Amino acid sequence: MDNWLVARMNQRARKQECDRLIFQNAENIYNLLWKEMTKWIEEAQQRGIDVWTNGSPYERQVGFKSVIAEQRQLTLALDKERQTIAIGGPRLFFVLQLAVCSDNTVCLKHDGKEIQIGDAAIKILDPFLFPEFAPVS
């Protein structure tokens, strides 16, 4: 029977393994999310929404080309140390957590629940591109 010390040592080893997996896969997950977002952004551009993308590898940006009364810009930032992707924009801020999920692969979580990359991209872009439909908090 394991005592508390052995249990904690096992817990530490598992956490270190999870941290290693997340660190190794964080950029790939972030890039997959950005790729999914750019797919939707390109379609939005083709349909007449005047948006642009910019930024650095760890901090991507989406904004509107046209001059509007309220400057709107969305930022997507990877923080490998905190194991998060932070999303910020006008009246929009939330964090996606990078985690090791049940199948021992790295996934995204929002509010403690696994979220697929495609769903995360829509969750990010919908209130930014269509703020008039965003829930008021």
Molecular structure report:
This protein has 137 residues and is α+β, with helices and mostly antiparallel strands. The protein has one domain (4-133). Helix content is 41%, strand content 31%. The protein has helices at residues 4-46, 117-129, and strands at residues 51-56, 59-64, 73-79, 84-89, 92-100, 106-110, 113-115. The protein has a 7-stranded antiparallel beta sheet, covered by helices on one side. A hairpin with a 5-residue loop joins β5 and β6 (106-110). α1 crosses α2 (117-129). The longest helix has 43 residues, at 4-46. The protein is elongated, with a radius of gyration of 18 Å. The relative contact order is 0.15. The model has no long low-confidence stretch (mean pLDDT 92).
Q: How is the largest sheet built, in terms of strand order?
A: 1-2-3-4-5-6-7
Estimate nothing, just give the exact number of structural domains.
1
Mean pLDDT: 92
Q: What does the main sheet amount to?
A: 7 strands, antiparallel
Question: If helices are DSSP runs of H or I spanning 4 or more residues, what is the number of helices?
Answer: 2
